[in-house]
Amino acid sequence: MKACVVVFPGSNCDADTYHALKEVAGFDTDLRWHGDTDLEKYDLIVIPGGFAYGDHLRAGAIAHFAPAMRSVGEAAKRGVRILGICNGFQVLLEAGLLPGAMLRNDSLQFRHQWVDLRVESTETPFTAACGQGQVLRMPIAHGEGNYFADPETLRQMGHERRIVFRYSDEEGNVDPAHNPNGSAENIAGIIDEGGNVMGMMPHPERCSESILGGTHGALIWRSLGL
Amino acid sequence: MSVSNYRVTVIVRPLDEVVDPEGDTIELGLHQLGFEGVANVRSGKVIEMVVSAADAIHARSLATEMSEKLLANPLIERFDIEVGQGSVTQQ
Amino acid sequence: MARALDDPVSDTALTAVALNRFEYNRILERLGRPPNDLELGMFGALWSEHCGYKHSKALLRRLPTDSPRLLVRAGDENAGVVDIGDGMAIVFKIESHNHPSAVEPFEGAATGVGGIIRDIFTMGARPIALFDSLRFGPLDDARNRYLANGIVGGVGSYGNCVGIPTVGGEVVVEDCYAGNPLVNAMCVGLLRHQDLMLAEASGEGNPLILVGADTGRDGIQGATFASVEDPESSARGVVQVGNPFLEKLLIEACLEALSTDAIIGLQDLGAAGLTSSSVESAARAGAGVEIDVAKISRRAANMTPYEVMLSESQERMLVVAESGRESEVIDVFDKWGLHSDVIGSVTSDGSVTITESGKTVAHVPIEHLNEPPEYRLAVEFPDYLAGASALDISAIPEPKNVGEALLSLLSAPNIASKECIYRTYDQTVGSNTVAGPGADAAVLRIKGTERAIALSTDGNGRACYLNPKAGGAMAVAEAARNVVCAGARPIAITNCLNFGSPSDPMVYYQLYETIEGIAEACEAFGIPVTGGNVSLYNEAAGRQIYPTPVIGMLGLLENVETTTGIGFAAEGDVVAVMGDLAGSLDGSEFLKHFHGLIKGMLAIDLDREVAVQKACSAAIEAGLLRSAHDISDGGLAVALAESCFAGGVGVNVDSVPTEARIDELWFGESPSRILVSISPKHRSRLLDLTASVNVPLHIIGRVGGDRLKLARNADVSLDEARQIWSSGLANVLSGRMEAQYT
Lengths: 226, 91, 742
What we know:
- The complex is a heterotrimer.
- By secondary structure, chain A is an alpha/beta fold.
- Chain A is built from 5 helices and 11 strands.
- Chain A is globular, with a radius of gyration of 16 Å.
- The N and C termini of chain A lie close together (10 Å).
- In chain A, 57% of the residues are buried.
- The mean pLDDT of chain A is 95.
- By secondary structure, chain B is an alpha+beta fold.
- Chain B starts with a strand and ends in an 8-residue tail after the last strand.
- Chain C is 36% helix and 23% strand.
- Chain C is built from 26 helices and 28 strands.
- In chain C, helix 16 runs parallel beside helix 26, helix 19 runs parallel beside helix 20 and helix 19 packs parallel to helix 22.
- The C terminus of chain C is likely disordered.
- Chains in contact: A-B, A-C, B-C.
- The interface between A and C is medium-sized, with 32 and 31 residues.
């Protein structure tokens, strides 16, 4: 597995993601600059969390014009696995590689907390090592994670099993009381039609080692290594 | 006394002498997109509302009070108020 | 340019730069001529309390600064540098931003966070954690609530964006902070020994490069502003607005530029802007500097040399590069989209020379600027202390229902959960957070090693008000106890001293005594003070704040796996108290909450404190403890409740043999006490261990069930208690969105 993490000005989970991919997952991993366009050699491209360009205007709005994002778009078409985490998810939405948009959290506050996530689909390269309906515990840390899409898009994604994670309680019950940000249908992660571009708000790179309080994030890396 | 509803728009802008990180970053993004001839980008916010008042002058004075007390922070922001012509329906 | 000798400067002009006539005459003496307006402004800024520490410097010399662990001593650099082994070191410092936060809370707090982060990465360290110790006036008042919410918003906004986890801090509410909130931010950085960078402007001819934001009229005279009593009424420049995105670029660019080896020195621009940064870095090297203000990019038109030299525009750095290699440095900044200007060079004449397009506009020997007068005032016992310490406990009835009293106390803002605040902070970015807010101390693993560091910030204004010396020592002791409970050994502190006006003899006494207490405690623990900050003139409406030292404690764990949390871990575990079972109510939250009393005699036995902490450390390192929790605000009952909440399990305390009053038993707050839980099989080993060091150990009950059962009449539902504790602070902080600026 040859992986890279794309670094934008204002990315702040780049080093964490690099650490998880290289030291925990054992992937051959590079950090690549947002101005780089030679991303052909990678099997996995991760757009990390942070505040690319300070999240000004809209989260991800300015980052998606970076030269590297053209290469990411081309790689997506070739079937390369692309993972956007948190701000990276927002960038993929702005770039049109995933449907929908992010609104401010319904609390109007930045929220950091550990959440429970129900795995809705194991038929993706990112979740193949998970059990169907398995509940994962991961941290979220964002101010704009309130996923929005029109009803037709939501219906179609549900139909095509492209909703990968939903916020739930620890037993896996999906209800409004366990929706930390107001996301439509408690959506925490989705995948594209081609099945190779995934966006998720929770941070698997922050829960891949037991000393950090949880190891469910490592399931994502294990799935990618299968 | 009859009361009408006025569409009021408050535009809040950073004071000229205050740094505007959002404006600066948008300017950077525009330059990167090739809009080289762009400068002095400033970013503020627009707040729209329907206000019940005796007349347009009263609507404006209410909006001014709202802006001073809540909508703008006079230490770092200034505001402009637009009051629409005629009355509208408040829902 | 020079003022004629017979053209005396007016009192108004001196007041504007926060200098007095005596100081002005000293300047005349040293220069042998009157200063011009720019020079006078530079003296004013550097001789301000904020930069020059003129009232506190003599007292601060009392603090111990020696330790074999220190790579850089206090005062020599921006922050202390402490060896943690494996070739790694920690750089940490705490600093106040009280006065700006009283005026514009969001930006005041945000720029406070930004400033302390710059102090850390300028030394070549990667910032890895932030702490925020916040103090507010009563939250039933709309203005205090506005200040509190703005400050919390500013702290979160900056730290979250710049990508440094906020892993701890404090939130304290007292009447004395009304209108004068305290915002103390601590930043912690990690570096390899060989990457340490000093803030020195050395080597004649080496270029000075100003990097980052353009210079505007922001916060002109901020340093002097922090050194007058009523900042809101004094004339001042534009409010500083923080730009965490730019700061993030500066962090990455500076750390990358440092790896070129072409940088000689690095200094951030903080209070008094370019004036203090250039003078201080030249002073450290015994060199001089020459700066052409015309070469500095500005954000506003028609700025005078005075405005440029004293601007406090945020997110700027002064880089001293090796002559001939400046382009290597500038290239790195260009890559990160950062603007840089070569604005001058290092000289050998020991003076700061400011020119504007070739014309000299200021020329002052640096030793004159850098050595402000020091004031030593008489230390007199203030009248209030006799009254404040006279507490007649027998006149206070014992509570009839301990359960009800506990629930009420759990809802008090100083005791209630702070989660409604810290959940708005990113606590885990960096992927090092082993324990975050809500624990006694934050614990961060050090990647690539087995080690971890534990940190805590603690202050106790109320205790210092009642007994400044004991309070100062207690603040150090509590901070140490907190890192010990997490499994670490204390190794160094940084401190932020928040006090009122030093010209008030009461305040000067408080400052003198508090520093004495801090010094004695540090000596008892054998740890140094690595640096810090003094914030004076904290008063509003003519009332001085409580003397409020905030201690930032650094502890080290040799093995991260030994870290211990505060939560009860397993049903059936034995619950015990190390140290005295009951405590004193003097100066307690209980007395304040139920009786409105701020009274009492406070004392700490440092020998006992050290013994209790060493016993706890030894027990943790021997693997005996399943939990350890400092007994502090609210006493034993509150500590028990917190250990239950953190563990999600109840407790049954059925053995409390003591002659003490029931309120002293459950709510007394004497120091040197730790609540622990152990597996029953370790009971005798722990008893042996504590007995061998003469530390009392009281076995008081068992973990289990879903209730908090306390002997001598309390039995409350854990869920109910948790609900009250979780919502106490959130309820008072929320409320309607209010008119903000009136």
